[in-house]
Amino acid sequence: MQNFIAKFRKEAGLSQQELADAINVSRKTISTVETARFTPSVIIALKIAQYFKTSVESLFSLDEYD
Amino acid sequence: MKQDIKAEEKFMGQNAWFSIFMGVTLLIISVYPMLNKASAPLLILGVAAFFGSFFMFVVRGGFTRKMKYHLTYKDEYLNTIDTIAYKHVVLALLFSMGAVYLSSDSFALHISHSMMATFYLAIMCLVYGISILWQNRD
């Protein structure tokens, strides 16, 4: 699964820690989700989408292996 | 709530280092009696690892109280790597027990049950600590 969280975060001028604090997760969660090492739960995906005022589909997309 | 997540992150890091120091200490305790002569470097390493584990135990004590001895982490990622680390521990324990089962006849006479139990504990501690640190990398 691909994600565009890093792109949204950088456009918003946020650090990983600031985004993590905003949605109440650890910085490692953001870091590993951005590098696709960790697939977050629906709850975290919705929290990130709500924070950036966008849809989950615009943050995450399936690739050919999913 | 935010403080909880940060405390959990710190607790996990300190817990991993505590496990590694304790694992090294226990490994030396379990292996040292098998040596035929005294080994100063091994003793120094063992004492240093013991002091390291004692220091980490004292440091993490406050966090243990803060976490109220919950068995899970609130943070999803920390909880996931904690669960995976326990899986690594079980696998390592199975492999080490298998290795001991296959080769124990050659050194069974020199080793007591308590030494073997200490050895297995050492493997468990070491693998837990290393697994957490490895999974917790950026």
Could you explain how this protein is built, in words?
- The complex is a heterodimer of chains A (66) and B (138).
- By secondary structure, chain A is mostly helical.
- Chain A has one domain: lambda repressor-like DNA-binding domains (434 Repressor (Amino-terminal Domain)).
- In chain A, 56% of the residues lie in helices and 6% in strands.
- Chain A has 5 helices and 2 strands; from the N terminus they run E-H-H-H-H-H-E.
- Chain A has a two-stranded antiparallel ribbon.
- The longest helix of chain A is centred in the C-terminal third of the chain and has 10 residues, at 42-51.
- The radius of gyration of chain A is 11 Å and the shape is globular.
- With 138 residues, chain B is mainly alpha-helical.
- In chain B, helix 1 (2-31) packs antiparallel against helix 2 (40-66), helix 1 runs antiparallel to helix 4 and helix 3 runs antiparallel to helix 4.
- Chain B is globular.
- The A-B interface holds A 20-21, 24-29, 31-32, 38, 40-41, 43-44 and B 1-2, 5-6, 8-9, 75-78, 80, 136, 138.
Features:
heterodimer; A: 66 residues; mainly alpha; 434 Repressor (Amino-terminal Domain); two-stranded antiparallel sheet; 5 helices; 6% strand; globular; B: 138 residues; 4 helices
